[in-house]
Design brief:
Elements: E1 14-17, H1 25-31, E2 36-40, E3 47-52, E4 55-59, E5 64-67, E6 73-76, H2 78-84
Antiparallel strand pairs: 1-5, 2-3, 3-4, 5-6
C-alpha cells in the first residue's frame, strides 16, 4: 500500500491556556472540574492532573486544556496546540 495523505477536519473546541504564572488556575479548575483529578502546588511548581480519554495527563502552566464537542478533555503543549488550532473569529 502506498503512503497516503490526510488532512485534519475542522473541529471546534473550547480551550483555555493555563497562564505561565498560574494566575488563572481557579478558572481552569472551575471550567474542567469534572475531569480534574488533582491540583499539586508543591515545590512552587503547580501541576494539574487531568483525566483524559488517554488516561491521567499532567498539565503545567503554559499548557492548553481543551474540551471537544463530545466532552472529551485533553491537554496540549502550546507549540502542539498552535500548530493544530487557530482562534475562531
Amino acid at each position: 500500500m502506498a503512503l497516503q495523505k490526510f488532512t485534519r477536519t475542522e473541529v471546534d473546541v473550547d480551550a483555555l491556556q493555563w497562564e505561565k504564572d498560574a494566575s488563572n488556575t481557579l478558572e481552569i479548575i472551575d471550567t474542567f472540574f469534572a475531569s480534574l483529578v488533582c491540583y499539586d502546588a508543591s515545590k512552587n511548581e503547580p501541576k494539574l492532573h487531568i483525566a483524559t480519554p488517554d488516561g491521567i495527563v499532567v498539565a503545567e502552566p503554559g499548557h492548553w486544556v481543551g474540551m471537544t464537542l463530545t466532552g472529551a478533555v485533553y491537554v496540549m503543549k502550546p507549540d502542539v496546540f498552535s500548530s493544530i488550532y487557530a482562534e475562531k473569529k
